[in-house]
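$ ./design --mode recover --in tokens.txt
reading tokens...
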């Protein structure tokens, strides 16, 4: 084994053999790494405690969602109550999750945002309870003023921003309402900025409704940011009951959940032979008289009178696509 002398090592200056070459190299590497680590700690800037983290926060009476930044060192987790500054002012919110690169895509362009000022304290929670009591008084006074002026509007709810700088009145109205005088009176009495916001029946359900027929909180009051249009065609395609009472939500309109699986149903409908098409399967030639879209099966009537539920994969070829005549259309809707 080769022995090395080194003046840089302890005892190396006297010319006595000290370490093997392998051990010698390892010792010098450790010293080098230690010195580099020390230099990096001295030269590199301190850890960026103020590096902004981003969180998705739900805030406001309308349960809006927004992406908010947090620059302090305190740890924030899901479910924490926070005080945020949004475009409307200082608000009370709850943290849902950390924000990622695609958060803005999911929230949409109309989503709010801002920064988290601090974690909510017990005093903030007491202030929130007091705020709710004041909102009841604001609601009663505003409704009284509306009745005095015979304004054709229905007051639905009142929201005072947590910071107290703004009060929002939500109302329903079939026509345009001139409430300029009403706003002046409210601003003078409450000493705050007044905002009158007209909403629709779906928004009314978001503010006031609690649970749906499924036993869960209504979707518009939990996770829906936008409420896309829902048509009777979606209910027919999914073979839902056409009884308006059973497929209507708390707002009196068709349930939003009818749209959740519609895209899947529509994709399967386009892939499968339509009702009225003539197909060839392993059992012979027949006509499609029904579709089971989710399980991708067809009800086929064969030439010998048999009606068999057939897998889509068992279809050898489609002889004719079928015509969308009244009879075929009616049969498709009645399935």
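writing sequence...
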């Amino acid at each position: 084994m080769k022995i090395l002398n080194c003046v840089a090592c302890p005892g190396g200056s006297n010319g006595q053999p000290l370490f093997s070459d392998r051990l010698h190299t390892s010792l010098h590497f450790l010293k080098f790494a230690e010195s580099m680590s020390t230099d990096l700690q001295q030269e590199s800037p301190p850890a960026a405690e103020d590096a902004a983290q981003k969180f998705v926060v739900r805030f406001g009476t309308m349960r809006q969602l927004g992406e908010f930044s947090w620059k302090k060192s305190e740890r924030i987790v899901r479910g924490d109550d926070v005080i945020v500054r949004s475009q409307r002012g200082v608000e009370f919110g709850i943290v849902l999750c950390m924000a990622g690169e695609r958060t803005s895509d999911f929230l949409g362009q109309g989503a709010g945002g801002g920064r988290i000022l601090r974690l909510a304290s017990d005093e903030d929670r007491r202030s929130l309870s007091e705020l709710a009591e004041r909102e009841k008084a604001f609601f009663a006074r505003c409704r009284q003023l509306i009745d005095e002026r015979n304004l054709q509007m229905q007051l639905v709810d009142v929201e005072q921003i947590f910071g107290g700088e703004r009060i929002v009145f939500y109302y329903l109205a079939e026509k345009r309402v001139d409430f300029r005088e009403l706003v002046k009176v409210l601003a003078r009495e409450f000493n705050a900025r007044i905002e009158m916001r007209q909403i629709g029946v779906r928004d009314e359900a978001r503010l006031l409704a609690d649970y749906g027929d499924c036993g869960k909180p209504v979707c518009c009051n939990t996770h829906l940011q936008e409420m896309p249009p829902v048509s009777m065609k979606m209910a027919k395609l999914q073979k839902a009951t056409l009884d308006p009472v059973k497929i209507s939500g708390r707002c009196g309109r068709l349930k939003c959940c009818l749209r959740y699986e519609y895209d899947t149903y529509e994709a399967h409908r386009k892939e499968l032979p339509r009702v009225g098409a003539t197909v060839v399967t392993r059992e012979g030639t027949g006509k499609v008289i029904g579709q089971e879209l989710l399980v991708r099966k067809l009800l086929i009537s064969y030439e010998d009178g048999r009606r068999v539920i057939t897998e889509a994969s068992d279809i050898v070829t489609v002889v004719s696509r079928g015509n969308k005549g009244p009879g075929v259309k009616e049969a498709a809707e009645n399935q």
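exit 0
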